[in-house]
TrEMBL record:
<keyword id="KW-0813">Transport</keyword>
<protein>
    <submittedName>
        <fullName>Periplasmic binding protein</fullName>
    </submittedName>
</protein>
<dbReference type="InterPro" id="IPR051313">
    <property type="entry name" value="Bact_iron-sidero_bind"/>
</dbReference>
<dbReference type="GO" id="GO:0030288">
    <property type="term" value="C:outer membrane-bounded periplasmic space"/>
</dbReference>
<feature type="domain" description="Fe/B12 periplasmic-binding">
    <location>
        <begin position="53"/>
        <end position="341"/>
    </location>
</feature>
<dbReference type="GO" id="GO:1901678">
    <property type="term" value="P:iron coordination entity transport"/>
</dbReference>
<comment type="similarity">
    <text>Belongs to the bacterial solute-binding protein 8 family.</text>
</comment>
<feature type="coiled-coil region">
    <location>
        <begin position="161"/>
        <end position="188"/>
    </location>
</feature>
<keyword id="KW-0732">Signal</keyword>
<dbReference type="InterPro" id="IPR002491">
    <property type="entry name" value="ABC_transptr_periplasmic_BD"/>
</dbReference>
<dbReference type="Pfam" id="PF01497">
    <property type="entry name" value="Peripla_BP_2"/>
</dbReference>
<keyword id="KW-0175">Coiled coil</keyword>
Length: 341
């Protein structure tokens, strides 16, 4: 249950970081000529030489490392899909496993990492995100230089991590490539956008929880970058931004102006039931697909009648917000929304 509660927190972004930021730095014995001070969400960290023993607390920070062709020695996933060390990452880590060519120590869950395990691997750099690890920063920074990043700023995170691992040129190339991919895709999507411009984007666990959040994260920003207009549910205060809004099934008919619906499915209440990582996407979507197909209100919507309801795992764009995640999410949108040739 705790794993599910974390993911729900990530979706709704309810955490208000109350910890005081500081400018403490982790001290290294290396020659200062090879050191650099790197700013992050909690202050600054002093990093020397090129880190070789990196701990990644969450896929959000493992992803940019792998995109830069840098391996981590330890990893904590958002959800406890796998509890032992990652000796065969391809079969144990959703989406990113194929980019990993070394075994990694499992250091627990991203928001409650196992400090004892982190100490055992003797890291020279620890990467985390503010929504998960701000409260642990003081402890982590005593183990190794620690960078705490903002989940909702993937471009800045890529640049910060690149600075830490001496891959700044590669990072700029990756960012340019990603922007070019989006620009090209926007042209491909133009006919679809013209015909069906309005999209209702919902995070969904079955039909028990439907959440709209059009203001933050890759899940919504990429859809908007492609030219679509995101439909928002009615708000008690229209002047407020389109932040996290739980909505009931009964309100959906009031959103009839949506031409298409994208349901970002998630199901983490029993992660141990996932037996095969190859079935990860279906494991996340089945409950929502089945509930939507059986519900009279859902089926009464024009988007359902016209076959324009699409299902995508929320983990893809919530857990992977950088270059790899953007490409995966973009390809999934192309596969499902673009007409077949």
């Amino acid at each position: 249950m705790r794993n599910f509660n974390y993911f729900f927190r990530l979706i709704i972004g309810f955490f208000l970081i109350s910890c005081t930021r500081n400018t403490s730095t982790s001290i290294s014995n290396n020659n200062d000529d090879n050191c650099r001070s790197i700013s992050h969400q909690m202050g600054e960290a002093k990093i020397c030489d090129e880190p070789k023993r990196i701990v990644a607390l969450g896929p959000n920070v493992l992803e940019p490392l792998l995109a830069l062709q840098v391996q981590a020695i330890a990893f904590a996933d958002h959800i406890g899909f796998y509890t032992k060390d990652y000796t065969n990452p391809l079969e144990q880590i959703p989406y990113l496993g194929k980019y990993i060519n070394e075994s990694m120590t499992n250091v627990g869950i991203a928001y409650t990492p196992n400090i004892e395990q982190i100490l055992k691997v003797k890291p020279d750099l620890i990467l985390g995100v503010e929504i998960n690890n701000a409260s642990q920063y003081e402890m982590l920074s005593k183990i190794a230089p620690t960078l705490i990043l903002d989940w909702d700023k993937p471009m800045e995170n890529m640049k910060t991590i690149a600075q830490a691992v001496n891959r700044e040129t590669q990072a700029e190339e990756l960012l340019q490539t990603t922007q070019a991919q989006i620009a090209k895709a926007k042209t491909e999507f133009a006919p679809v956008v013209k015909k069906h411009p309005k999209v209702l984007l919902l995070y969904a666990k079955g039909l028990q929880e439907l959440i709209s959040d059009n203001s933050r994260g890759l899940c919504s920003s990429l859809v908007k970058d492609l030219g679509f207009q995101l439909v928002s549910p009615p708000k008690s205060n229209p002047s407020q931004p389109d932040t996290r809004t739980p909505i009931s099934l009964e309100i959906l008919p009031q959103l009839e102006k949506a031409d298409s619906i994208i349901l970002l499915g998630y199901n983490f209440s029993q992660p141990e039931t996932l037996k095969d990582i190859d079935n990860f996407a279906q494991h996340q979507l089945t409950e929502t697909q089945q509930a939507w197909a059986k519900n009279e209100i859902a089926q009464s919507l024009e988007a359902s009648k016209e076959g324009r309801v699409y299902y995508i795992p929320a983990y893809m764009c919530l857990g992977l917000t950088g270059a790899i995640g953007t490409e995966l999410y973009l390809n999934e949108l192309k596969t499902q929304l673009l007409p077949k040739l």
